[in-house]
Design brief:
The protein is α+β, with helices and mostly antiparallel strands and 229 residues long. The protein contains 5 helices and 10 strands.
Amino acid sequence: MKDTDAAKRLREARISAGYTTQVEFAEKNDIAKSTYSTHESGSRGLTAESAEQYGRILSVSASWLIFGKEPFTINVTSSNNVQPEDINYQAIDVTGAVKAGNWVKIPNWPQEDWKATICPIDDRYPRIKLFCLIVEGDDMDKRYQQGNVLRCLPIKQDPEELIPGKRYIVHRMDDDGLTEVTAKELRSHEDGSLWLWPLSNNPKHQMPLELSDGSVKIHARVVGCSSDE
């Protein structure tokens, strides 16, 4: 996944920090030369972990490396040039997509295709590693739009953890072992059964799933969205 803008900022930060070559930077900081080269060339996008690692070494913010926009600024009078100002933000990896009707062998993207995004720090989950999924398609278009990024909290399918009215990331398996990854809203019926509802204007994506169906499993709760949650 090409990311040339982040690569240019990474190169700028490296040079500003006094490292004249990629090799010098990699060797002095015990980083694999090939890994760093793919990041600075843009042939591989920065993950949350790599952006934070480089940020610590180069005295820049992970947010600036990834997006390069306010409130993350360049201080041209500083020897380090770029100053971290994103104490209320964190980098989280986008690891896949949610899309009805898209059946895949492996639910997540290959790790080399992961790309970090910047999200507000969520004080509700200080010790839990969140992940992000991008919305594709229209099966939740009453709530989320194509291109929205969902922040997800990994959970076990424990009835005590499930909250009707919240949105969840759902994996559904077919007989061939393929998986469909979608976002759905959990609802409780009068008989006590739990159902997962798409919030779609598309008639093709309006059929609810009963949670007790053996082919359905909840993997995470949606706790935020790039638009709002």
